[in-house]
Specification:
single chain, alpha/beta, Rossmann fold, 3-stranded parallel β-sheet, 10 helices, 17% strand
Length: 306
């Protein structure tokens, strides 16, 4: 095997749908065409939204579609690693407990916020020495301290050059909602480094979240992998796939008798790797290329998809 390490990172907040699979297909082919290793990591830290049985269903759907992997991890079993990272950041003065509510943050906005992410101006900086001090007042979260004029630039493998003034767009962003937990930003940074991931292939909705992750990597002295953000699958209204667009779950297509080759073939056609005829995932290895994937989102009609 080469030194390339990629990953599939489903979340059990719901069933896998067509949009998830298109991105996973690109990630899997990217790794396998380079003779690399593939990791499956179940990102199950969003407990209020996790659906019972969704993790098992996701693994079953992936195997049914022809995916395989070399290692398997579950984030909820790795809390000790996230806690250790928080302790390091706190000791270095780069993480602090914050008791501000979302309403507090909304009131502190001096300009339109960045996408769905509110900018946090550091209201609780220096307010509490420890998590316990903050918890005596209100349930806190951990935040990462972002200095003024902190600008992160990198070149995405698919999207090209990208830059963000993190201080102005995000401010002091959250790391964890409980003392032993971790939010997405911290967990993926710690895990990608521990699992030797060399390239992250994921949807381009996460492109704006990448600079914050790079800051955490730098603060912890961890390597920064390459990033490859690919266009999403959206509904006819241009919004990312959701229940409002109909049932695009893989489980629903399976129940309707649609074959895995049919699903893979249609998605491969959208990436420029065939004419839409049924095909096995492994059979796409000779034709895989990032260069043929359109730069715009794939509009998917769930009414008559196959």
């Amino acid at each position: 095997m080469s030194g390339y390490v990629g990953r599939l990172a489903p979340s059990p907040t719901g069933a896998l749908h067509i949009g998830n699979i298109r991105t996973f297909m690109i990630a899997w082919l990217r790794a396998r065409t380079q003779g690399g290793r593939m990791i499956l990591r179940m990102e199950d830290l969003d407990h209020p939204r996790d659906k019972p049985g969704a993790a098992v269903q996701a693994v079953d759907d992936l195997r049914w579609l022809g995916f395989d992997w070399d290692e398997e991890y579950v984030q909820s079993e790795r809390r000790q690693a996230y806690h250790a990272a928080i302790e390091r950041l706190h000791a270095a003065g780069l993480a602090y407990p914050c008791i501000c509510s979302r309403k507090d943050v909304e009131r502190a906005q001096s300009a339109p916020h960045y996408g769905e992410q509110l900018r946090y101006p550091g209201i609780c900086r220096g307010r509490f020495l420890t998590w316990e001090d903050a918890a005596a007042v209100h349930p806190p979260c951990w935040r990462f301290r972002v200095e003024e004029d902190t600008h992160v630039e990198f070149t995405d493998v698919f999207a090209g050059p990208y830059g963000q003034d993190v201080a102005q767009t995000l401010g002091d962003f959250p790391l964890a909602r409980d003392i032993d937990g971790a939010g997405y930003t911290l967990a993926v940074v710690v895990d990608d480094a521990a699992m030797d991931v060399t390239e992250v292939v994921r949807g381009d909705d996460l492109l704006p979240a990448t600079p914050a992750q790079i800051l955490v990597q730098r603060a912890l002295g961890l390597p920064t992998p390459d990033y490859c953000h690919v266009p999403l699958v959206v509904g006819p209204d241009g919004r990312r796939l959701a229940k409002r667009h109909g049932d695009t779950r893989i489980a629903a297509y399976r129940a309707a008798g649609v074959s895995p080759e049919t699903i893979i073939g249609r998605l491969a056609e959208s990436c420029g790797w065939g004419d839409g005829s049924p095909v096995r995932l492994q059979e796409l290895l000779p034709t895989f290329s990032l260069g043929t994937i359109p730069a715009h989102p794939l509009v998917f009609n769930s009414i008559s998809p196959f």
